[in-house]
Amino acid sequence: MARINVAIAGVGNCASALLQGIEMYKQSPENVIGLMHYDLGGYKPGDIKVVAAFDVDKRKVGKSLKEAIFARPNCTTVFYSQLPDYPVQVHMGPVLDGISEHMANYDPDKTFIVANQEPCDVAKVLKESGAEILINYLPVGSEKAAKYYAEACLEAGVGFINAMPVFIASDETWAQKFRDKNIPIIGDDVKSQVGATIVHRTLTKLFENRGVILDRTYQLNFGGNTDFLNMLNRSRLATKKKSKTQSVQAELKVALADDNIHIGPSDYIPWLNDNKICHIRMEGRGFGNVPLTLDVKLSVEDAPNSGGVMIDAIRCMKLALDRGIGGILNSISAYTMKSPPLQYTDTEAKKMVEEFIEGRRER
């Protein structure tokens, strides 16, 4: 099979985990722990090739991709260090609203330091690199920056995977722009493999399927990476909170009132680094109207937890490109994203993705 040429906007923890995983599964094909699909439509993880990368931190801009993914403030687990010397240098992207002002008050090893360089022409770099797909890994709240990269993809004819909670794929105006140019788009806001949202959704569906009325629920998250530091600025959280909340509400026939559901990042604890701790509480009523309470704690390494999901999203988009399919890819969006244009249960979405891979479903 041909290579899948990918560009990355935001060379942070998620990019680091993704590249480590691609190389690990490429070098050890017999070790497929942690993958939902090793072979997806004829494409394997090792077929993914990063051909361009963009960031704004001075410790990454101008550096080789191999050096950049292990540079501060990245703090995710290094589970595979034998990376090749990628012939890719990280380009300076536009800052726009990509960095919250409060982050300047923290330890440089924990936050961003903006490079003193002019931003490149992203669309031009995408064209010259031969990129087919761009993954948007920008920080939460980077609405202007995310839309800049989406526009660059439209100009360059490159597929767009929106891994962060700015509503682009799920916004009809943006969706129409990608349909008009027959460019595929997947979004919005990537799910983890087994993360807070997928666990909360599954438990909510369990309550629904077993006849238990869910009266109220919360989800609180703690972490020590730049994502959690960035989200201390609550003004940047509106889309993130909405994305996570509507993903859980989608599993209910009757949505909970706003006062009875609280989902969203809660606090930043520096020494946790890329470890994310989630607390979920669900209060309901079962047979005889008798109360039932469920408390769950989940601890995960945040960045690797979305790596396998992203590898599937990339390969499904490549299949769409091979088949000449543009616009929203609904099946893989529902399977891999918290806020897809169309919400389905995870079981339904998985079935739809398998049908898409086999060519029995267009999108």
Description of the molecule:
This protein has 363 residues and is an alpha/beta fold. The protein folds into two domains: 4-191 and 305-357, NAD(P)-binding Rossmann-like Domain (Rossmann fold), CATH 3.40.50; 196-302, 2-Layer Sandwich (Dihydrodipicolinate Reductase, domain 2), CATH 3.30.360.10. 32% of the residues lie in helices and 20% in strands. The protein is built from eleven helices and eleven strands. The chain has helices spanning 13-27, 65-68, 122-129, 143-156, 172-180, 196-209, 226-230, 238-249, 307-323, 330-336, 346-357, and strands spanning 4-9, 48-55, 90-92, 133-136, 159-162, 184-186, 213-223, 261-268, 275-285, 291-301, 327-328. The strands form two sheets. It has a seven-stranded parallel beta sheet with strand order 3-2-1-4-5-6-11, with helices on both faces. It has a four-stranded mixed beta sheet with strand order 8-7-9-10. α1 (13-27) crosses α9. The radius of gyration is 20 Å and the shape is globular. The model has no long low-confidence stretch (mean pLDDT 96).
